[in-house]
Amino acid sequence: MDASRASDSDAYYGPMLLFKSTLFYLLRRLIGTAQVLRVSKGRNIKSFRMKLHSSDVRLLRENPNARVYIFAGTESTVDHTNTPIQFPPIEIYVDDVLTKQFTKGIKGRPGSARPADLTPYFSLFDKLILLRIVYLDALENYILYTYIVEEFPLATLVEQIAKKPHISAAATRAQIQKQNDLAGEDADLVVDTSSLTLRCPLTYARMKFPVRSVECDHIQCFDSESFLSMQQKIPLWQCPVCSKYIDQNLLAVSDYLADIIAKTANSVDSVNLNADGSWKAVEGDALLDSDDDD
To answer: Domain-by-domain residue ranges, the chain?
Structure first.
C-alpha cells in the first residue's frame, strides 16, 4: 500500500486532537494513524510501523525546511481544537536507533513541551519504518500524531517580525511622558529621569533587535532572536520583563529602543530617560544625546 500508514498495536480512533501551528513551524500533513500510549505504572513500550506516501517523500526531499514531527497530547484534553503538547517521560527509537529528543516541558505547565523531531533518523523516507516508544508512568492515555511540518529558521522569524508594524518612537515618548505624569501625581513630585537598560533581560547581552508585545505596558524590551531561541526550546511565551503571557503574533520592534541602540556605542549598557521622552547616556559612557527630531 502506497498510502501513509501506521500499523501494529493500539491505533486511536477517538476524537481527533488538533495541534496549532506556531511561529516556528506550519503543520503541513498528517502521516498515518494516531497511536495510544496507554496508562502505565512504570516502564512500557509502544511499537508501530509507518510508511510514507510518495507525495510525502517528495515533499521531504524537495523542501529543505520540511521535517517529520511527533506531537502528543492527553486523551482528557478539554479543548480538542487547541491541544497543548504533552509527553510522558519518553524515549523514541527509529529502527532501533535511540533518537535525541527534548520533549520534556515544565511540570504543571501544559504546552511547555515541544514536538519530537524524527527527521535526522529517517535515512530513507520511502521505506517501512519501525517506531518504538519507551515511556514511564503515564498517569493517563497519551495520543501520538505524526506530521510533516515546515520549519522556519530563527533568522526568518526575526526578519518577519521586523517587517510587521513597529511601535513608533513617538508612541513610546508619549508613553514615557504619561508614566512620568502618573508617577508625579502618585508621589506628589516630578520624576526627572528613569533608567533604561540596553541589555536583554534574558541573555544580558546588548540587544540587536529590541522587541516587546504591543499589549505590555512597559518601555523595556528584549532581544527578539534571544527570546525566540528560548521559546523554541521551552515555549512558555512569557514576557521576560513583566511575566505576562505574550501572544506570539503581537511582538513588535520598538523604534525608540532601536534608535538608541543605533546611536550609541556597543559599550553603552543603559541610558537615562527624561520626563519628556528624550534620553541621555549614563554618565561615564562617551555617548550621544537623543535627537528629538526623529
So the answer is: 25-152, 155-281
DSSP letters of 189-250?
S---EEEEE-B-TTT-SBPSSEEEETT---S--EEHHHHHHHHHHS---B-TTT--B--GGG
Collapse the DSSP code of 53 into the 3-class scheme (helix H, G, I; strand E, B; otherwise coil) and give the result. coil
Q: Are 211 and 161 in contact (CB under 8 A)?
A: yes
129-138 and 270-274 as β-strands: parallel, antiparallel, unpaired? Answer: unpaired
Cell, residue 149: 511540518
Packing angle, helices 169-187 and 255-263, rounded to 10: 100
Grid cell of 234 as nine digits:
521551552
pLDDT by residue for the chain (294 residues), tens only, comes to 333 434 445 788 889 999 999 999 999 999 989 999 999 999 999 999 988 888 998 999 999 999 999 999 999 999 999 999 999 999 999 999 999 998 988 988 888 999 999 999 887 777 889 999 999 999 999 999 999 999 999 999 999 999 999 999 999 999 999 988 876 666 555 555 689 999 999 999 999 999 999 999 999 999 999 999 999 999 999 999 999 999 999 999 999 999 999 999 999 999 999 999 999 988 554 445 665 444
Say if residues 72 and 142 touch (Cβ distance below 8 Å): yes
Domain 155-281 CATH superfamily: Zinc/RING finger domain, C3HC4 (zinc finger) (3.30.40.10)
Supply 156's cell numbers.
526568518
Q: DSSP letter at 160?
A: H
State which fold the 25-152 domain adopts: Jelly Rolls (2.60.120)
Whether 54 contacts 126, CB under 8 Å: yes
Nearest to 15 by CA among 70, 73, 69: 73
